[in-house]
Amino acid sequence: MTAADLDHARAAFAELAWGKAHAHFAEADRCGALSADDLDLFARTALLVGADEEGVDLLERAYEAHLAEGAADTAAESAFWAALNLMHRGEMARAGGWLSRARQGAAEGTGSAVSGLVLVPTALERMMQGDPEAALATFEAAEAIGRRAGHPELLALAGLGIGQARVELGDVKAGMTKLDEVMLAVTGGHVSPIASGVVYCAVILACRDVYDVTRAAQWTRALDRWCTAQPDLVPFRGQCLVHRAQILQLNGSWSEALEQVVLACRIFAEPPGQWAAGMALYERAELDRLRGEPVTAEEAYVEAGRYGHETQPGLALLRLAQGRIGPALAGIRRAVDEANAPDRPRLLAAYVEIGLAAHELADARRAADELAVFAGRYEVPLLDAMSAHASGAVLMAEGKPREALDLFRRAGDLWRELDAPYWRARTRILVATACRQLEDVDAARMELDAAAEEFRRLGAQPDLDALERFEDRTSVHGPLTAREVEVLRAVATGKTNRAVAQQLFLSEKTVARHVSNIFTKLDLASRAAATAYAYEHGLLERRTPG
User: Fold this and answer.
1) Helix 461-473 / helix 441-458 crossing angle, nearest 10 deg
2) Which of 80, 204, 216, 296 is least surrounded, with the fewest CB atoms within 10 Å of its CB?
């Protein structure tokens, strides 16, 4: 072993240069036996560059070396991190063996932080068994040990569990406040990289589970910065990309979201079988569905299902867009019957849409009412918007456009606050429908034009096609929509596109598109021909000289 290699390895570790540290530790290891502490560091670099099996092997060597030195506590801590890594990979039998070693070492040790670390898996097990109260008590006991020992990793993991348990018990505000507290320690650089990565991903998932997208966006940006500062980091990077894609999708940056998801899918391809691959594939399917790529969307949904990821509500909404209402209704009903919170609200929102399309008004009403309960429980803008949108749609189906319009206005304001342009546009169509039923044709036309502009900008071709079919059903003259007739009347009076835009409160680009559509539909070649058509078909009164 050369002292230089070991010095370089330790320096690289301190600089978060994991690839360089791993290479220098490997070279030092080839030259002679590393100390137990250096083996621990070597193991962490292996885990951080994605060499999981090597990392566990090195933790075993560190465990044996610590035992040989008579350091039972430190050996137990090495065993704990091996168990945690194996649990994350789904190798529960091996993880159980390592956890048993960690607990034995904690019992034989001097009462240091490891006695609290081994409580964390116990608390997690209680959470999974549906006993969040017992889990909370266990996490709090672990946190108390962490405070006494001054152990940042134990404090972070125990604090994470406390926050999750409080959310599970229904105290969402207190739970999220605790998670924010834990994140301050993580973002401040006080927690080791592996524990930090675990906390980042878990907290962002917790935000998503309570539909707090504002918090999720803030912590996702922090995770992105954290990953960027460690170019050699392999674990957690894929999850970071998926979380970013989810926020970008909501905010209407679909092309950028797709780039993130495609890269995440590549990262999760090796080693094969990673559970998070299903999450990435589902997000890929959602983007393809929204962009009008049904074949690739279905392929991605199916592949996500192979990884054990729920394919609903996305697959049911794809079936609805294909006009296959029966399979859509069956799929969403099955998923709702099986689902618990936190997945239930997004499934209920889709159930309302599909139920109304299938004329199952009673089912849609029940789903909307349950969604309103969730919105009241969590008190976050996203769920409020989803609930207002869904409840308004049901009121429309019940023949109550005035009451529905109030809810649509509220949903639209919330979507704007959340910077969610796609859902803002979807709500505009419902506003237009309500306005038409209330005989406010001008307001309806403005809402539909605004929705069409947004769908076009996003590349939401299925929604754009559906909107055109909707306008065709309300056409007032042959193949032209109501708005196109209005534009034709204005053009026939000799107005320029700019003047038409000012008169109808549209953009020049929108007017130009309407004029192009009119010429195509009526097989006209000029504005003069359009004027003649308008007079010939009674759209304008023919004027006589004098």
Assistant:
1) 160
2) 296
Report phi then psi at 480, rounded to 5.
-85, 145
Angstrom distance (rounded) from CA 260 to CA 231: 16
User: Residues 129-136: what's their mean pLDDT?
Assistant: 96
Residues 6 or more apart whose CB falls under 8 angstroms from that of 126 comprise 132, 134, 135, 138
Exposed, middle or buried, 456 (CB in 10 Å: 0-12/13-18/19+)? Answer: middle
- Looking at every residue in the chain, the average pLDDT score rounds to 91
Q: In angstroms, rounded to a whole number, what is the distance separating the alpha carbons of residues 248 and 254?
A: 7
Nearest-angstrom CA–CA distance, 387 and 344: 13
| Side-chain half-sphere exposure of 432, counting CA atoms within 13 A | 22
Of 154, 159, 155, the closest CA to residue 176 belongs to 159
Residue in the structure block whose two tokens are 């009674």: 538
Give me the residue label for tokens 């994350």: 88
pLDDT digits (tens, 9 = 90+) for 427-456: 999 999 999 888 888 898 899 989 999 999
| pLDDT tens digits, 141-197 | 999 999 999 999 999 999 999 999 999 998 999 999 999 999 999 999 999 999 999
CB burial of residue 419 (10 Å; 0-12, 13-18, 19+):
middle
d(CA 202, CA 160): 8
Q: What is the mean pLDDT of residues 354-364?
A: 94
Q: Which tokens sit at 26?
A: 């490997």
Q: Which residues pair with 480 in a beta bridge?
A: 477
- Residue 184's alpha-carbon distances to 181, 222, 287, 501, in angstroms, are 5, 11, 33, 51
Q: Are 161 and 149 in contact (CB under 8 A)?
A: no
Contact predicate 425/451, CB 8 Å: yes
pLDDT band at 87 (very low <50, low <70, confident <90, very high): confident
User: In this structure, what are the phi and psi dihedrals at residue 477, rounded to the nearest 5 degrees?
Assistant: -155, 105
* 430 to 347, 361, 412, 486: CA distances (angstroms): 20, 17, 10, 21
Between 152-168 and 193-209, two packed helices, what is the crossing angle to 10 degrees?
10
Taking only the tens place, the pLDDT of each residue in 196-206 is 999 999 999 99
Among candidate residues 91, 375, 411, the one with its CA nearest the CA of residue 367: 375
Question: What pLDDT is attached to residue 545?
Answer: 39
How confident is residue 544, by pLDDT bands cut at 50, 70 and 90? very low
